[in-house]
Each structure stands twice: as structure tokens, then as C-alpha cells.
Specification:
Layout lengths: L6 H14 L14 H14 L6 E6 L5 E5 L3 E3 L5 E4 L4 E10 L13 H7 E11 L11 H6 L4 E10 L3 H4 L4 E6 L2 E7 L9 H7 L14 E6 L4 E2 L4 E7 L2 E9 L1
């Protein structure tokens, strides 16, 4: 069965579904057999989408394997960001970090969290938008979801935060309104407690590309608000402690 898998064909199908704002069930796709095949398909999809931004989301598979996907479309709130709305679009508040120096693949001692923090040049408030061409997202086949750029459908980079935010984000007051309605109001909470867990895991992944985690790369670190569906277009307003991020989600 592995010989029959066509990463370029899967990418083309995912691309056309995304273009049309459509979704299909997992069972209707030819599934990648392993992470290598999933990343091959993701790379073809990224090429079809014309992605050139150096922004990446980092997460882990159910088996604990760290994986990445490119952020696209990428916008900066300071420039008056607007991201297209599609039915099923979800939103996450996140912390993003920009590397000030390379974190090359290591074969000896793993990177410590402190070493990863040292490599970070800047910390930002950010917002990720998600909608997958796969109806179930990653709940049935995480490898298929990985091929579909981990469901990323846009990223808005917000204001710089104090670098200490990577240590103090959890528990920070977070309030999000969408189209004038409050959709989150409570303490910021990362699924792993520590916003850098998945980035440290990825830094220590010997299978990641040689070109990954270079100085200048922007990396998101996971949701602080859970994934919230946006049922209509409208303005998003995020208050994270004393920092604010505003942008619009509009019909494409």
C-alpha cells in the first residue's frame, strides 16, 4: 500500500478543497503511512499555496512526535490584518517566539529549556486561525492532518511581550471578544502548562530538517484559549494582561 501513496496527489486535493472552502471525511483520502510521507505531502501543499513566510506552528502527535507546519496567510496586526473567514473557522490565542540564533540539530546532550529561551530574541502575542480540509481535523488521522498543514488557515502577529511571558503566560488574565461578543474570559492556559514544551521537544528531534529552527524563524507555541469556532465574520479583540491584539476576520 505504501508504494501507492501519492503525496503530490494528496496535496493537490487538499489545496483544491481549501481553495473552495470545502471539507471531506478522513475515509475519503489516501492516507500517508508515516510522518515522512505526511511531510512530503505538506511540502507539496505549501508549494501549491505559494507559502514563503518563515512562520511555523509546533505541536506533537498523539504518539509524542514533535511536528511543524507553516503559517499562511501570515499578517501583522500593526499593518491592519484581515484574515478570510470560512465556515468552521476556529481561533486560538497564542504566544509566538522569534529566534535570535540557530538551534542546530544536536546528537549529544539535548537542549535544555534554558538554552531554548536563550535563543529567543522576541516574544509576541499572536492569534492562529484554523480550518482543515479534513472534516475531523486530526482526530482520526493525525498524519493526514499534518499533511493539511496541521489545519493552519492564517496567523496574526500581535505586539511584543516581555520575554518573561514564556514563563508567566499561564494564568495571565485573557479576554477575547468576537463581533462584539465575549468568546473567552479567564486565565490563559496552555495544554502542557508550559508554552515552550513542544518547541523544546522539536529542538531535540533528530529527524527535523537541517533548515529548521534558524535565526529569524517565528514559532507559535500552542493555544492559551482552546480552539473556539467563529460562527461569523467580525472583529477580534484580544486582551492578554496589559497587551492588546485586534484584527478582523472577513468573508473571503
Amino acid at each position: 500500500m505504501t508504494e501507492a501513496f501519492d503525496p503530490r496527489g494528496l496535496a493537490a486535493r487538499l489545496h483544491s478543497l481549501r481553495q473552495a472552502g470545502g471539507q471531506e471525511e478522513t475515509g475519503s483520502f489516501a492516507l500517508p503511512a508515516d510522518l515522512h510521507q505526511a511531510m512530503e505531502a505538506q511540502n507539496f501543499l505549501s508549494a501549491a499555496d505559494g507559502i514563503s513566510s518563515n512562520g511555523w506552528k509546533v505541536t506533537v502527535s498523539p504518539e509524542g512526535q514533535a511536528v511543524t507546519g507553516p503559517l499562511h496567510p501570515y499578517a501583522e496586526a500593526a499593518a491592519g490584518a484581515s484574515i478570510s473567514w470560512y465556515p468552521g473557522l476556529k481561533f486560538e490565542t497564542e504566544i509566538a517566539v522569534r529566534l535570535g540564533r540557530d538551534l542546530p540539530i544536536r546528537t549529544g546532550t539535548p537542549y535544555s529549556r534554558a538554552e531554548v529561551v536563550e535563543a529567543i530574541a522576541a516574544v509576541h502575542l499572536g492569534a492562529e486561525l484554523l480550518v482543515s480540509a479534513v472534516k475531523e481535523g486530526g482526530s482520526v488521522s493525525f498524519l493526514l492532518f499534518t499533511s493539511d498543514r496541521l489545519g493552519n488557515s492564517g496567523y496574526v502577529l500581535g505586539p511584543k511581550l516581555d520575554k518573561s511571558a514564556v514563563d508567566t503566560a499561564g494564568g495571565t488574565p485573557l479576554k477575547v471578544t468576537h463581533a462584539g461578543r465575549t468568546i473567552y474570559d479567564g486565565p490563559a492556559q496552555h495544554p502542557k502548562g508550559d508554552v515552550l514544551t513542544w518547541l523544546v521537544d522539536y529542538a531535540n528531534d533528530g529527524l527535523r530538517p537541517e533548515t529548521s529552527l534558524k535565526a529569524g524563524a517565528l514559532l507559535t507555541t500552542g493555544t492559551l484559549s482552546g480552539a473556539i469556532e467563529l460562527t461569523e465574520p467580525g472583529e477580534i479583540d484580544i486582551l492578554f494582561g496589559d497587551s492588546q491584539l485586534r484584527f478582523s476576520v472577513s468573508k473571503g
